[in-house]
Amino acid sequence: HTSIIVHKDEFFYGSGGISSCAPGGTLLGPPDSVVDLGNTEVTEEIFLEYLSSLGESMFRGESYNLFEHNCNTFSNEVAQFLTGRKIPSYITDLPAEVLATPFGQALRPLLDSIQIQPPGGNTFSRHNGQC
């Protein structure tokens, strides 16, 4: 699981779409590690408009795929918008590394059917004011 913390909230993507919570507020708890990608000049208002646009296009819940369009894809996209920097490749490359193994290939049909949404967040919607 990866997410982006910006403007005092944590934003993440799963099979329920884009969600938000207080930092470390999902049932997954505090992160195992934090990668500081720097600061942003993007205002909260512009960021929330951008996020709303993503939620209506590239990051709808039904677009989620554990291996090819997941929380890492979202975190990477948002990090580049906010800071111009990508998240580390050891994170974004992990699904491909798993699929490159015989075990990953054997499990893929089962894993493709799994819908992942870390519990404890609020579904993001610019219209209902949750963020």
From TrEMBL:
Molecular function via GO: palmitoyl-(protein) hydrolase activity; peptidase activity
GO biological process: protein modification by small protein removal; proteolysis
PPPDE domain sequence ranges: 1-112
Keyword Protease (UniProt): yes
Stored InterPro entries: PPPDE_dom, PPPDE_sf
EC supergroup of this enzyme: hydrolase
The entry's keywords: Hydrolase, Protease
Catalyzed reaction equations: S-hexadecanoyl-L-cysteinyl-[protein] + H2O = L-cysteinyl-[protein] + hexadecanoate + H(+)
Nucleotidyltransferase listed as a keyword: no
Pfam family, one: Peptidase_C97
Family stated for the protein in its record: Belongs to the DeSI family.
Family matches, as PANTHER family: DESUMOYLATING ISOPEPTIDASE, DESUMOYLATING ISOPEPTIDASE 1
Protein known as: palmitoyl-protein hydrolase
Source taxonomy: Eukaryota, Metazoa, Chordata, Craniata, Vertebrata
